[in-house]
Amino acid sequence: MDHRSRLRLLLGAAFLMATSAIGPGFLTQTTTFTEQLAANFGFVILISIIIDIGAQLNIWRIISVSGKPAQDIANSVLPGLGFILSILIVLGGLAFNIGNIAGAGLGTNVLFGISPKMGALFSGIVAIGIFLVREAEKLMDRFAQILGFIMIGLTIYVMFTAQPPVGEAAIRSVAPEKINFLAIVTLVGGTVGGYITFAGGHRLLEAGIKGKESLGYVNRSAISAISIASIMRIFLFLAALGVVAQGITLDPDNPPASVFQAAAGNVGYKIFGVIMWSAAVTSVVGAAYTSVSFIKTFSPLIERNQKWIIVGFIAVSTLIFSLVGKPVSLLILAGSLNGLILPLSLGVILIAAHKKSVVGDYKHPIWLTIFGAFIVIAMAYMGVISLFEGMTSLF
């Protein structure tokens, strides 16, 4: 593989992971917590970025060095553990995909006035179509990149129209007046929790980028992925902060839409439609691809029919949405539940990083191990606290 092809794959994996993270829940969580915490939310974002980078570097490096997907690594650590991890990932991916499909329907409703259910059906067909072409992986990479750039560009425009207090946000990012554990866990869970952090790692592995000689490329792709998602998070936070600072109350049924409409009027509302649809449909693609990548190594039959199982995964998500729906509070709770999967998956990876049967003669950096162990303990602790907080707010 030449250098240019390798870089294209690395960028594709980075955008697949980033756009998997930037879904309807991402937009809802960011604007909801900005309204609750105002400029102090900057600190939450900063801490979550540091945790995200530590988690993702550990996971992607071990997947690359071992040449195995996460479920096979987990089974190498403890037989049967890979099956448990896969069940959690697939169920979490399905739950989030229902929200993603709902978000896509909402986006088309804003743009064209059609019903959310019809929009969801259209969006499901678009996502399925990507996997029916001959070179589905290449199309998936390009699709994620194009829509990723569109989302970031439009959010930057709205951020400037909102005129946020950037100075105050910068100060509170390092000197917050209050700290919210639920917000930290939810953001980390929504960025590297559940299936999301494995999206790019498994994509690189499937493309043949593995082994110790590829670690430089893997590091670059992992950090790029977190950077892309974080840039979107920061600009969305600033846009919401600009609106909140003016004393405008966000619509609890659709917080991100009210941010864009308050900042840029009807044009802003249509921009929200584009961003919501782009965020949702790229997350549908990422969730389906990654969830199925967690079960395909368990059976040759699944591996041979991977494409059709992905199509079925998307179709089932679309069908369930038409029967259920997507409350804002449940999306936030789902983010915190996703955060609880991270201590398990990262803990397994850290154990595997020091097993010769998994990584051979590779020596995992001590600082990454310590950093990863700290993240496992901190996320487990904060995850339990935030889960109780989230359930209390629901009931």
From TrEMBL:
Keyword field: Membrane, Transmembrane, Transmembrane helix
Keyword match Transmembrane: yes
Presence of the UniProt keyword Transmembrane in the record: yes
Top-rank taxon: Bacteria
Main location: membrane
InterPro entries per record: NRAMP_fam (IPR001046)
Membrane topology listed for this record: Multi-pass membrane protein
Localization terms from the record: Membrane
Transmembrane segments annotated in the record for this chain: 37-55, 76-98, 110-131, 143-160, 180-201, 222-248, 268-295, 307-324, 330-353, 365-388
Pfam families reported for this sequence: Nramp
The protein's name in its UniProt record: Membrane protein YcsG
